[in-house]
Design goal:
This protein has helices spanning 11-22, 40-50, 71-92, 124-140, 160-168, 187-203, 223-236, 267-273, 280-297; strands at residues 2-6, 26-30, 54-57, 96-101, 144-149, 152-153, 173-177, 181-182, 185-186, 211-214, 217-218, 221-222, 243-247, 277-279. The protein is an alpha/beta fold and 301 residues long. The protein has a domain at 2-158 and 184-218 and 263-278: NAD(P)-binding Rossmann-like Domain (Rossmann fold). It has a 6-stranded parallel beta sheet with strand order 2-1-3-4-5-10, sandwiched between helices. Helix 3 (71-92) runs parallel beside helix 4. The protein is globular, with a radius of gyration of 19 Å. Bound molecules: NADP nicotinamide-adenine-dinucleotide phosphate (NAP). NADP nicotinamide-adenine-dinucleotide phosphate binds next to helix 1 and strand 4.
Length: 301
């Protein structure tokens, strides 16, 4: 497949470039400065120039806390920009895979969220992403799959795993929130899932393959659980480690409120698309090992 993906250096974009090439696909990353999601004309131009078989919408304004004070730009990118990508895919008559987030939910349920559970974002980022889902479905719902992913980490970009390893290089103990539950998910596995869904959409016009799906790693964790697993994996490889002190959300106030429970039920994507991402523990070890190799290679010789 020839795949146009929005964004140039994001975690999922970079993972899709790697996994797509490994699977024999041509993946073309489109981003700033040539293509800016806040400039719809550049989106249409950029995607049309590529003439892809499928479009993947992976770029977003992802600064959850900063969005509280930058709602204009968050909505311009995540809502209007998402709609512009959908319009471009529609103009080319090719399927769209659009990424969204677990933060469309308020976290009040005590079980994993299903696709048709009520959405009620707790902050601007989640609200702007929800508006993006709606823009995609309004513009091109009959040929789009919206994949809600969560708690993304990878060897690339900025993420919780890299932050924990960086902090552990200097600190013996790190305080981490233990009362928010989610599904930590490797962007490398998200990329594999996107490739599978994209292939299904290209091959088959069945409306049942379109719509909103949850796609996270199997298994759940709190941020503190995840931090402990990061340090255990790192220690095994001779890397930095620290003790995790469990704290509550109330102990660590942030500009944006986070849902206490944003676990996602992924049965539907398993049934419909035959996509089931591996358990996060194994995926995490792969990413920590890759980061460890990078850290070792960058040591002065
Ligand atoms: N990260 C998470 O934990 C998480 C959780 C749930 C859902 N998601 C969703 O998953 C998707 C991928 O996330 P990610 O972690 O890969 O994001 P990321 O690493 O933060 O990367 C975001 C990408 O979007 C690009 N971008 C931002 N504003 C843009 C604009 N105006 N025009 C063009 N490109 C723009 C960035 O480009 P530059 O390099 O130019 O900045 C970057 O390539 C997003 O839809 C996100 O909302 C992420």
């Amino acid at each position: 497949m020839k795949i146009a993906v929005t964004g140039k250096s994001g975690q999922v974009v970079t993972s899709l470039l790697e996994r797509g090439a490994a699977a024999g696909h041509e993946v073309i990353a489109l981003g700033r400065p040539e293509m800016d999601l806040a400039d719809p004309a550049s989106v249409l131009r950029g995607i049309k120039d590529v003439m892809p078989d499928v479009v993947v919408s992976a770029a977003a304004y992802t600064a959850v806390d900063r969005a509280e004070s930058e709602s204009d730009i968050a909505y311009a990118v995540n809502a209007l920009g998402a709609g512009a990508v959908a319009e471009a895919a529609k103009a080319l008559d090719v399927p769209l895979v659009h990424l969204s987030t677990d933060y469309v939910f308020d976290g009040e349920l005590e079980r994993p969220y299903c696709e048709n559970d009520t959405t009620r974002p707790t902050g601007v980022y989640g609200a702007s992403k929800l508006a993006g889902e709606q823009a995609v479905m309004d513009a091109y719902g009959d040929n789009s799959a919206v994949l809600r992913v969560a708690w993304v980490y990878s060897p690339f970009g900025s993420n919780f795993v890299k932050t924990m390893l960086r902090l552990a290089a200097d600190k013996d103990e790190i305080s981490v929130v233990a009362d928010q539950l989610g599904n930590p998910t490797s962007a490398l596995d998200i990329a594999d899932g996107i490739l599978k869904v994209a292939g299904n959409l290209v091959a088959d016009s069945d409306p049942g393959l379109r719509g909103v799906f949850h796609m996270t790693a199997a298994g759940e964790a709190s941020w503190a659980d995840l931090a402990q697993a990061i340090f255990a994996a790192s220690l095994d490889l001779g890397g930095p480690s620290a003790l995790v002190r469990k704290i509550t959300t109330a102990d660590y106030p942030t500009p944006a409120a986070r849902p206490a429970n944003s676990r996602l039920d992924c049965d539907m994507i398993a049934d419909v698309h035959n996509v089931a991402l591996q358990d996060w523990h194994g995926a995490l070890k792969t990413v920590v090992a890759r980061l460890q190799v990078v850290a070792t290679e960058s040591l002065p010789r």
